[in-house]
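Customer escalation, tier 2.

The customer says the design service returned an amino acid string that "doesn't look like it belongs to this structure." They asked us to rerun it and document both sides in this ticket. The original structure tokens are below, unchanged.
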């Protein structure tokens, strides 16, 4: 998925940027930037789109998003309906020039070079790594100068040497786009997120892009490496995964609420994307939540 180019604001006296977002909902436009991003979700829930990956995020999650990888944290609809600030994230941005043009070429930093290369796949930290890195990111909001650089290098070292990582996608090749094309694809993206609960015909989406249906299908597949129907199903299943935590809804209700018109088709798509059935997924998540209490 391509996206709007986005510039991270920097000051003349800082080589890295620590950003605190505390608002009703996160910046919800698909975008990309040349900096690597490490983000702690202090509070909030929603869907993360990172490269070719679609999944959920929740309070406490920590993600590493590689340079020039299209991404967005799309807050759940409940955040748009509340006036109080309920979404809170801390992010650190840096690029391969932040510490000097040859810094990451040092032989002692070979593990960090591997990490930065792998980060384009997207990384979710789990277990001890998530807790350790999350706390350091919190502390970095009160730091400046050398302390912030030392803390960032400590974070990168922790991640590079940890097994508590989950890669979001198998592979991804980042690339930069122009603003006009980014706007067009972001409109399609936003439309799909908002309207996934109902039937969507290819003709309707193609008309948004001012294309014929066949031209739109070629366009979307060429730029996202997946068909629009595949993308739409991924959005729907990501929403279904969230709803399955709610025991008040039956699997059939979730199927139709997420835009599927056929329960057997919903089950097939869900199992294809998650490797387990909706029923098994619900039991796994319920057991996980109980063990955390």
């Amino acid at each position: 998925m391509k996206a709007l180019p986005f510039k991270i604001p920097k000051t003349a006296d800082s080589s890295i940027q620590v950003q605190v977002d505390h608002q009703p909902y996160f910046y919800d436009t698909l975008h990309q930037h040349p900096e690597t991003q490490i983000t702690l979700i202090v509070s909030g829930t929603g869907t993360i789109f990172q490269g070719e990956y679609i999944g959920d995020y929740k309070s406490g999650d920590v993600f590493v998003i590689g340079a020039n990888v299209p991404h967005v944290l799309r807050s759940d609809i409940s955040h748009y309906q509340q006036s109080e600030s309920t979404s809170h994230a801390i992010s650190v941005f840096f690029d391969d020039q932040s510490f000097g043009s040859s810094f990451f070429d040092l032989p002692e930093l070979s593990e960090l070079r591997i990490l930065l290369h792998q980060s384009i796949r997207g990384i979710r930290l789990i277990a001890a790594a998530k807790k350790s890195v999350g706390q350091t990111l919190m502390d970095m909001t009160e730091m400046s100068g050398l302390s912030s650089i030392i803390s960032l290098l400590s974070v990168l070292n922790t991640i590079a040497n940890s097994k508590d990582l989950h890669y979001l996608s198998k592979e991804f090749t980042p690339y930069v786009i122009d603003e006009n094309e980014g706007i067009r694809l972001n409109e399609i993206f936003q439309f799909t997120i908002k309207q996934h609960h109902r039937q969507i015909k290819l003709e309707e989406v193609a008309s948004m892009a001012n294309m014929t249906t066949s031209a739109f299908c070629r366009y979307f597949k060429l730029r996202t490496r997946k068909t629009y129907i595949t993308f739409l199903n991924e959005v729907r299943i990501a929403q279904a995964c969230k709803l399955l935590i709610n025991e008040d809804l039956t699997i059939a209700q979730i199927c139709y609420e997420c835009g599927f018109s056929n329960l057997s088709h919903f089950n097939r798509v869900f199992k294809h994307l998650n490797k387990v059935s909706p029923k098994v997924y619900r039991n796994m998540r319920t057991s996980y939540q109980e063990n955390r209490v």
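Tier 2 assessment: The sequence is consistent with the input. The two ends are 37 Å apart (CA to CA). The chain has a mean pLDDT of 87. Sent an explanation to the customer and offered a walkthrough call.
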